[in-house]
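Annotated sample (chain length 323).
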Amino acid sequence: MMRMRMLFMPVLALLATWSASSALAQPYPVRPVRIVVPFAAGGAADIVGRLLAEEMRKDLGVAVMVENRGGANGLIGTEAVATAAPDGYTLLFGTNTTNAAAPALFKQLPFDPAKAFRAVALVARTPFVLVVRGDGSMNTLGELVAFMKQNPAAANYAYSNSTAQVAGAFFAKQANVPMTAVPYKGEAAAITDVVVGEVAFAFASVAAARPFLDSKRVRALAVTSRARSALLPDIPSIVEAGFPDSETVAWAAFFAPAGTPDEIVQRQSASLERALAQPAMKRQLARHGSEVDYLPLQKTEEFVRDQFEVWGAKIRAAGIEPQ
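Output written by the structure step:
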């Protein structure tokens, strides 16, 4: 019996090796893919992530599930992907906050965003918009700045996320006017306080501002992009409005854990490219305040590397202290 067991052991080892090699040789993917959105359900990031997950499902031929893991400005969900297995079955729907600005905004991070991920594809950019009270007298950024210089007690603004915080602080520096930043838990609450006059203005995403703009409860003075946005084509860019260094545009990209094989991230990037090339996807993202801006794998990697310095410099120049 012992002799037979010894004879079979090499055969079993060979079969195990063959089985593992066969599994590795299987084309990706062979099981469901998980996309972690590090923000609460129902927000713009969640909606866009789910739209792209559905298109990836059709392209990849497996279930693509979205998991919301909000909290700590997106860092909780981002950390979950940073520590996930690099096998292609966990992706992060990351943003400029989680994957570029975080080292300058926070004193301690549970992961290194420059080393913990592989950038897969840039998918969208999201310009913000500066809004003031709809029934007020201000129609330009110049008039807003003049008002705040004349009324220092009213020189305040609302923000509810890191992008709006940076946009507001940097604008205050460029305008050379001391301003008080007032934090809010949500964009709707921040804009509502603009409407009632609690704060002079707010930076908000186009998606959040749209209902207030449509009802004329607020007025848009500028979008934060370098050129006018197709989302609000009648509104001047912040550069056009006289603040050439105040461009602050949010972005979203997909990331995989560091160590994910090249062939897998290339497959993921190609799937996202096909999804974003559809005219219907462009319209859907526009409805939620984002502009399609796909970059392939290598260009996304270069873009993200540059963004660490872009956001770090902007945060330092704005005088925002890490929390």
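Annotation: Residues 1-24 have pLDDT under 50 and may be disordered.
Annotation: Residues 37 and 46 are 6 Å apart (CA to CA).
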